[in-house]
Design goal:
Oligomer: single chain
Number of domains: 2
Distance between the termini: 55 Å
Largest sheet: 3 strands, antiparallel
């Protein structure tokens, strides 16, 4: 059953990729890099399906997302469908904006994109609060998180906490107990563990759910939220604040005073400790970003072999390797949520636990 589900997901993803390439000319050279970057990058629309119609015309169905821009002190909002997949410009008063490679730029009335000799875009960008595909996927993950735990909480309120778990309780309770007892309480001592448990449980499940959504190769999945550096940076900042805002005096004494060490050693040790305060969340940010992005790139690269070789005979081996990687990515989705939560718990424990020496 599990293998059948994985095969279905994989072929659905291949169908999406074949559909996205069907609109190109047969003589046009396939660009694997562009295809991969297009699928892992954020966008202002959510791709639903692509197919070739009866007349041979390439049809692409997308879900337009809200574009919210602040320009010259005014707020402008409209759906991304106004850009017509980047073929049209949208007026903002006396100025215009264009969608170019997933980014919005200020242009003239003809939609000119100016570049320097190195190919860097010179056009300015308005301040954007737009709901992109990754943001919409994050809202979906948050909704699923509320739905799952809301249903679990209602089940406990109806049946009582001492009743034998059933249904969704049977799935959620062992995971919650494992994260609480073997991750959080193992790193944070006493009642302080219970204080941080709601945040750390939310962190674990939020990362895990969004990782799983990204593995679904068709709408409403196929996003790369955890592979977005802004997302992982935000999680790392919250972990940084959790560590340093609630740290006790012993933690700050070890960093700023380094008791028990000679003065000349403190000259080197204290700056290193201060730098370490920032390198720890930086490592959290980079680890989650790199592992999730790498998984997406590997699967897409294996799929691209079919288009590069232009041979159907490469499909069986490519599908087999993609299926293996796809299975591993389900493990990575859970493993990265576990590692992020474990290290955050460890850093918090180092900051709030009482010294025993």
């Amino acid at each position: 059953m599990r293998v059948a589900i994985l095969v279905f997901f994989l072929f659905a993803g291949l169908g999406q990729l074949f559909g996205s390439q069907s609109g190109a000319s047969e003589n046009e050279e396939f660009d694997a890099t562009e295809m991969i970057m297009h699928h892992i990058a954020d966008s202002h629309e959510w791709h639903v399906i692509s197919f070739t119609g009866p007349s041979g015309k390439h049809i692409q169905i997308t879900l337009p997302l809200p574009v919210i821009l602040i320009h010259k002190g005014k707020v402008w909002s409209f759906l991304s469908s106004k850009f017509h997949h980047g073929e049209s410009i949208v007026p903002l008063g006396s100025d215009y904006v264009a969608l170019y490679h997933g980014h919005i730029y200020l242009t003239d009335a003809s939609g000119t994109i100016q570049k320097d000799e190195n190919g860097n875009i010179l056009n300015a960008s308005p301040f954007s609060l737009s709901i992109t595909r990754n943001v919409a996927s994050m809202f979906l993950g948050a909704f699923l998180l509320i739905l799952i735990f809301g249903s679990t909480a209602r089940a406990y309120s109806k049946r009582g906490g001492l009743a034998v778990p059933k249904g969704i309780q049977l799935v959620i309770e062992p995971i919650v107990l494992y994260v609480r007892d073997d991750i959080i309480r193992a790193q944070i001592h006493g009642r302080k563990a219970d204080f941080f448990t709601p945040y750390l449980l939310t962190l674990f499940f939020f990362i895990w759910i969004n990782n799983l959504i990204g593995l679904i190769p068709f709408f409403p999945g196929a996003t790369n939220l955890s592979g977005n550096i802004s997302f992982t940076l935000t999680l790392a900042v919250f972990s940084f604040l959790s560590v340093n805002l609630f740290a006790n005096g012993h933690y700050w004494k070890e960093i700023l005073v380094a008791p028990g060490t000679p003065f000349y050693v403190k000259l080197f040790l204290i700056p290193i400790e201060i730098i370490g305060m920032f390198t720890k969340p930086f490592a959290l940010m980079l680890r989650l970003f790199a592992n999730i992005t790498a998984g997406h790139i590997i699967i897409l690269s294996l799929t691209a072999i079919i288009f590069v070789l232009k041979s159907i005979y490469a499909a069986p081996l490519t599908i087999l390797l993609s299926l293996i990687m796809f299975s591993l990515e389900f493990l990575v989705a859970l493993l990265q949520a576990y590692i992020f939560t474990l290290l955050t718990s460890l850093f918090i424990g180092m900051a709030v636990n009482e010294s025993h020496h």
